[in-house]
Amino acid sequence: MRLSTNATAPIGMSSTPRTAKRASEARSPLAAPPRMSDVAALAGVSKMTVSRVLAGRGVAAATRERVQRAIDQLGYVADAAAGALSSGRSAFAAVLVPSLASSNFSDTVRGLTAALEPHGLQLLIGDTDYDLEREERLVRSMLRHQPRCIALTGAQHTSATRELLVRAGVPVVEMWDLPALPIDAAVGFSNAKAAREMVRYLAGRGYRRIGFIGGASELDRRGLERLKGYRQEVKAQGMSERVVRLGDSPITMRHGAPALDALLQRWPDTDAVMCVSDMSAFGAIMQCRRRGLSVPADIAVAGFGNFEVAECCTPTITTISVDAYGIGTRTGETLLAALRENDGANGMPRRAMSTRTPARNSVKIDYTVIARESA
Amino acid sequence: MRLSTNATAPIGMSSTPRTAKRASEARSPLAAPPRMSDVAALAGVSKMTVSRVLAGRGVAAATRERVQRAIDQLGYVADAAAGALSSGRSAFAAVLVPSLASSNFSDTVRGLTAALEPHGLQLLIGDTDYDLEREERLVRSMLRHQPRCIALTGAQHTSATRELLVRAGVPVVEMWDLPALPIDAAVGFSNAKAAREMVRYLAGRGYRRIGFIGGASELDRRGLERLKGYRQEVKAQGMSERVVRLGDSPITMRHGAPALDALLQRWPDTDAVMCVSDMSAFGAIMQCRRRGLSVPADIAVAGFGNFEVAECCTPTITTISVDAYGIGTRTGETLLAALRENDGANGMPRRAMSTRTPARNSVKIDYTVIARESA
DNA sequence: TTGAAAGCGGTACCAG
DNA sequence: CTGGTACCGCTTTCAA
Q1: Is the Cβ–Cβ distance between B294 and B315 less than 8 Å?
Q2: What's the CA–C1' distance between B51 and D3, in Å?
């Protein structure tokens, strides 16, 4: 295969001589694409008028129509890079999530898209794979595109990332958590408190020997917070903790079976299992079936996240519902408000939110225990 | 909420006077970010030398180090828009998938990322939501960023989309299908043939009254192809068809229960169900449990896609395995090869693949029936 | 309402 | 190996 020789060389280092760019002017698919000046010439106006038509500013109706016809005729598409360079304002918004494969985060991205796209912002989406170094690399690479604003996941970042983000001087929102010291603003909830609530729910149902299964990675802060909340509440209730930590994030369905096995091996009399995610809870329930255990009669199982599988599984899975899509839309709205504020005021460019409104930049997202059949 | 007054106005129409851009030169987070000329001045070289250091071209080691120090000291981040404009070459690759929430497609995106990122290409990701008009809008909007290459899903597009794509003059790959007339190149498989294979498998296991459950939408071409394959093979086997079409794409777990109910109501003696997706198959199996039907003893269920749930469900789900991640990496490799070819040759810019190598631009992706417990 | 000129921040090209 | 200059395609600014 052609690629094997030089599989990671940068693409496009060879080049076309500047003067040859418009070499093939013949009307073929290979002809250089039309420029704004081409449109202007065809419509018999100046570039500026074309620019104004595109931006929807004040242009006489007749002129505007003539220009629009020329645009359509040539199939003109404006060059965003040129526009961004000239105006000093890109049309990008950057988003970073730990894993696009997790429906949780893809819902958040969809929510962000829904909020930002109508305002002409194009998302630059990055998948950090729960790796802070990778997050840093992605931030660096996205910053090259001068995004108007940035959304990222969690409160945990390398110090270089924080530095980059602050220096970027654009609104930043941290999602899915409520950091003690946000870089700029946050849209999320306390994963620890949510987990405590689940333990209280289970205790209220009479379960006293409650286990927790989660991932082994120290990088999944939200998972760790949930574990922390479990520990706090178990202690508060005077119960003893039973924790199994196993496997990498993202936690998938495959996680549940071995984790359940490990838990029951160590603490055979466990009467309820709280899982770091619905994915894991589902895997655990399926494993219960294989072991001939009935859920919840023999053992109760609870999840986190209210994924679709929690609703569709038999038994249906008791879980904590978090509005992932809403986190996206709220984040989008928060960023837009900050952009307006920066923009409207004294014209100081690229100001972060925190310089203006230090405090009330945290949006708290609701969550609720959804009581279903499994617990 | 502040946004309610003007929820969809474009952002950033007010502006900062050009001359004020560097108004606050004080060393604060509000100072204008450093430019290449600043780096050059600090290092005592010309901009060109800085540019060469960044590009990793031939620069004397001592000079390079000096420049690098200046870069680090200033925290300089090159502006991608300026670079793209000047060189006539962006660092973007565009991808369009029907739904980011589907693990199938998010895996493909991950594969693409893995293939393209090492070459310095930044993905522009778009979610068409199974809507061809939306796809067209997204293509138009992405084209403004002059992507070096484009990957999109399926063979079905509006004629305007095809026109835009051809005129863009960059390599284009259609994924997840093998169109009779690809725009440029394709990486996929025949969904119809794969479905036929599943019917043959079920027939081979002795099932004769095989139903099909799928979505009602005409927009999900891959779903329709699977249905077509089912119909062809059922006919070939001398069986009669039993088809239920229900609900929108993407098909989720919620689809399975009502679809199974509808199928059994109309054809109560059905002995096997083939589902358009594992999601649906899972929902159907859970519904079987609720109805007191044992799988596969009372009724067999098969899925499509080899999603994680197919492996973790009890019973495990018989399905067709498709390497979604591999579709992404193969697509990436195909695009990279085309970029190299364009680039290396006569320097004609922005040439599509098909102008070179009309035929062998289709990469066929393997699939296999995975026999598990459910059928 | 429209146009002309300047320049955004880099890279190509050629000369030294 | 390094620097000077022109210029990428668009928007800003200011004048008409």
Answers
A1: no
A2: 12
